[in-house]
Amino acid sequence: SKIRPLLRKAVIAPFNGLCSADMYPLNTTLNTKYVLFYLLSDGYNVQIAEVMSSRVKMPKINRNELAKVLLPLPPLAEQKRIVAKLEKILPLYERLK
Fold it and tell me: What is d(CA 90, CA 97) in angstroms, rounded to the nearest whole number?
C-alpha cells in the first residue's frame, strides 16, 4: 500500500483485475510468496521507515522512495525453500503468540 506502508498491507491477489490507486501492484518473475513474506517482514519495514523518515504529515511512500528499498534476491530454488520453511513455521508461531 502507498498509504501507511508500515502497517504491512500486502496481499497476493487470487485473480486478475484492477486495484485501488493507493496500491502498487507488482508483477514479478520471483516466487510471489517469497516477495509477500519479505514485504511483511521486519527487514522490509525498517527500510520503509528509513526512506519515509522525512514524511511527517502524510505517511505515504512514492515510487522514488520505494525504489531505494532493497530486496534480498536468492536463486529461485532458495526462494522456494524459504517459503516452504516459513509456511511450516508460521502456523506454530501464531499458536504460540
Answer: 11
| pTM for this prediction | 0.83
Q: Say how far apart CA 6 and CA 1 lie, in whole Å.
A: 9
Give the amino acid at 75. P
SS3 per-residue string spanning the chain: CCECHHHCCCCCCCCCCCCCCCCCCCCCCCCHHHHHHHHCCHHHHHHHHHHCCCCCCCCECCHHHHCCCCCCCCCHHHHHHHHHHHHHHHHHHHHHC
- Could you give phi then psi for residue 5, rounded to 5 degrees? -65, -15
Residue 46 has pLDDT above 70, yes or no: yes
Q: Return the bridge partners of 3, or none.
A: 60
8 A C-beta contact, residue 54 and residue 67: no
